[in-house]
Amino acid sequence: MCSKEACSVLPNGNPNVSAEARSRRISLLTRGSRYCVACPLLWSAAHPEGYDGNECGRWEASPNQLLLPRRSSFPMTMLRRGLLAWVSRVVVLLVLLCCAVSVLHMLACTPKGDEEQLGLPRASGPTGKEGYQAALQEWEEQHRNYVSSLQRQIAQLKDELRQRGEWLRSAQSPASAAAGLGLEQGPPEKTQADLLAFLRSQVDKAEVHAGVKLATEYAAVPFDSFTLQKVYQLETGLTRHPEEKPVRKDKRDELVEAVESALETLNSPVEGSPNQRPYSASDFIEGIYRTEKDKGTLYELTFKGGQKHEFRRLVLFRPFGPIMKVKQEKLNMAHTLINIIVPLAKRVDKFRQFMQNFREMCIQQDGRIHLTVVYFGKEEMNEVKGILENTSKAANFRNFTFIQLHGEFSRGKGLDVGARVWRGSNVLLFFCDVDIHFTSEFLNTCRLNTQPGKKVFYPVLFSQYNPGIIYGHHDAVPPLEQQLVIKKETGFWRDFGFGMTCQYRSDFINIGGFDLDIKGWGGEDVHLYRKYLHSNLIVVRTPVRGLFHLWHEKHCVDELAPEQYKMCMQSKAMNEASHGQLGMLVFRHEIEAHLRKQKQKTSSKKT
Asked: Comparing C-alpha atoms, which of 477, 263, 440 is closest to residue 338?
């Protein structure tokens, strides 16, 4: 039975209820009613006395009354309330658990800081000197392991390179029977076959067997020439020396290896005959080489032959690896005649000097030369013919041709006529000027670097500076033989000139000869040079030590076209002196003033 005493709070208040009873009951405001925890009925203001009965009844709904639940539904209500409280606790625990897992995951996956990577002790780890020492030892051990790993990898790479080199050397030995390259199908192993195919493709891409068509003269890759002592180079680098001993060890070792490889080939039993004398480095005459950066380095080495006028030449190619033999030739130049063609107008003194050199080098030393002089006009022609006749009588020389042309001087026309007038067999032509000085060694170089239908030779000559400027501080200018020294103070490689060239007459005729529309000075040689570059012939371009352009005062006449006049003036400026020597001339007044001041200071101190 629910009574006033059983309730926590009566609607109108109940002072008789004890404090303990009040604390054990929960008040629930329901429109003036209170919930009785004991019976759980609602105490209504309409029935303050409560009610009797075994079962709880249901009051009628009224404005100030609430429907009472039946006594039998009380256990279910409490169960539902307990379940809701338990579920809420479980949810809260799950949320807390997820948060903890997330925090642990973030701590585990965060990259280590610099201090942790270096093995420095953490806040929770050991502290003090012992902790730091342990961390440093751990870091040192990791470093040693890393270094050991790198050393193992380097050793593996070296071993692979050694195996590749052995495969290449073993593949070269049976490959000498193939034509041209000396390459046959390699051993059954696929690696060696692939390596041989790669080397073969590198040789085929390079200009070894045939020339490559080039768009302009700037695309041509020139050769450098060398002997056992010196290298004659176009790209002088920082030294600016046109000839020098190889300063860089890699370049020196490269050339020595090429010569040694050639000597091994010449002295091998397979290549030589039983009675052949052994070849040595003293038999090496000269070599030329050039490097195409995407293919390799080509070497052409010339050695003395078994007899006079006989030579041995080896062509080697380094396709970014060990040198491989391309071919070997036996060259006999005993009957190779050179027709030197010289166009001329006036300049009798220069022609007399030219004939002195011609008599010594061509008649007395070489003996396989024909001279063709193409003379323009009549003025001073008799003097020129007289020099030829005197040389012919004095040296018993009859191998010359004198051609007279009318009209103004045209170098291209003179050379073209001199080449076409020849009626003998195919002859080697050397286009020369009257102010050129050459040696007998150059004549052999001309023969060795030309081949009909295959190669033409464009030597880069050494151009002499003005002796009056070079030796101005000396008492007198030394003799010509002493002036012909290849140094940066005495001259320069005339790499912009293409007038001196060696080619066979058949190649000159087939290419179309000179452009006869060009008049006066310059232009015709570049035009012919471009024709050869556009063909399939190999153009050998290299500085040579035995070909000199003698200094002479150059006059650029007003009749020249603007482009020709510009080229003439540029050539005139470059022929005078080096950059430093010209600077001394330009600032000579300042230098003289400085010297006078220094002299005055010295004299004033003495007084």
From this structure: 440
